[in-house]
Each structure stands twice: as C-alpha cells, then as structure tokens.
Design goal:
disordered C terminus; about 240 residues; two-stranded antiparallel ribbon; about 35% helix; 5-stranded mixed beta barrel; alpha+beta
Length: about 240
C-alpha cells in the first residue's frame, strides 16, 4: 500500500492544511489559527539579530525530508534537550483506534541532528512553510537553541520543543510500551515504524548515533516479527 509523501508542494499548496481542517472537524485536534502560526514565526525571526545567519535545527523527519529550501546543512548538537517519542498522534502516523508516536525535544540531555542555514532574503517564506508543517496545533513550541557544529562553531537555531501542557504529550518512558505503539500504529502518511526507521537511517547516514532510537528500533522489530509469526485470526469454531 502506497502512502502520500509530505512534500513542499503539499504544504505550500494547502493539501496538508485541508487534511488538518478535516481532522479538526472530526475532533482529532485543535488547530492553531493562521494568525497565531504566523505570529509565532515572526516572533522567532525577530529573535535573530540583523545580519545574523538564520539556522533551523532538525532532529526528526526534517533530517530526511526537510521540505523547505536552504543554503547549507551541517551536523550539529544541542544541549539541555533530548529527542524522544513523546507526542501521541491519531493522524499522520497513527489512528484514533491506535495512536502512534512522533518525536519531540524534551527536557534534559543532548541531541544530535542537522542544522540548516536559510537564505536571509527567503527566510520568512521558508519558515512559513516550516511553521505550516510543524506548528499545526499546540503540540510544539518554537524556540531558539545554541547548536554546536562539527567544527566547533556555535550558532543560534530555531527548532520545536514539546509542549508538556499539550493533551497529546506522553511522558511515558517505558520502552516496551512506546515500542508497541510504534510497531502497531499506521496513519495516512504510513506506518509509525517507518518514521522511526527513516530517522535512524538518516542519522546513521550522517555518522550520528542515538542509543535511545536504536534500542527502540530493536524492540519495534521484535514486536513486528512476533505479529507476523502469529497465525491469522479466524472466527471459525474449533
């Protein structure tokens, strides 16, 4: 079964927003208004000094599918926040019956990822596309973090951290429970496990490791293998 890809065109053309409007009508989420989203973007832009390079730090799907235009990309690490599957989703990577999990930056630790430098003349437009993708609801808060590049250079970068007050925030840390959700959930963008595996592959392609994701992927594959090994369900009486 094929699934749509979250492309730049789908975001900029309004396809993603139309899907989320329908989801809101079904009571699956509460969307941020266009005005609130644009105000968040503009506040973030205003935190950069005149002439300062504008960077974005990606830690999940932005690594392998950024969908916005940029001038440069480099591996980087931030401190004080770590990558975790702490956001429940009944949509793109899950369903109301079997919600999935997606990544957020939560308190503590550190996180390696990709830093993207934007063209200053196009930054407002490109961040507009990024905000339409990430700031759909109140699940994330935009923030400025200090990102250290592989050569030691430190830059300020915009990113998205989990909003712990969101009703979809999951503080669950039991890897088995998180892995079970990821192994069994699927939404219109595809299986939740693909999101995990593609993020891990993207990190490995950059020469980066994440022990949390690696342990989680091992458990997810074990749940999937167990499910595939089971005989098909039947309603027939013995």
């Amino acid at each position: 079964m094929s699934h749509p890809v979250l492309t730049r065109e789908a975001i900029a053309g309004g396809d993603l927003d139309a899907f989320m409007q329908d989801a809101e009508r079904r009571g699956l989420l509460t969307r941020l208004s266009d005005e609130a989203r644009e105000a968040s973007r503009d506040r973030t832009l205003a935190r950069f000094d005149p002439g300062e390079d504008i960077w974005v730090f990606g830690y999940g799907s932005l690594i392998w599918n950024p969908a916005f235009h940029f001038e440069e990309q480099r591996t980087a690490r931030i401190h004080g926040l770590h990558r975790r599957f702490c956001l429940e989703t009944p949509l793109g990577r899950g369903s109301p019956e079997q919600p999935g999990r997606v990544l957020g930056l939560d308190r503590g630790g550190s996180c390696s990822g990709m830093a993207f430098r934007l063209d200053p003349d196009k930054a407002k437009h490109e961040l507009g596309i990024l905000w339409r993708r990430e700031m759909i609801s109140d699940a994330y808060s935009a923030a400025i973090v200090r990102a250290r590049m592989d050569d030691g250079q430190v830059v300020r970068a915009a990113t998205f951290i989990i909003n712990r007050k969101s009703p979809r925030y999951c503080g669950e840390t039991d890897l088995d429970k998180v892995a079970y959700s990821i192994a069994h959930a699927e939404g219109w963008l595809g299986p939740c496990s693909d999101y995990l595996f593609q993020t891990l592959e993207g990190l490995h392609g950059l020469g980066l490791r994440d022990s949390y994701l690696e342990k989680l992927a091992k458990k997810v594959r074990a749940f999937q293998a167990d499910r595939e090994a089971r005989p098909p369900a039947t309603d027939a009486l013995p």
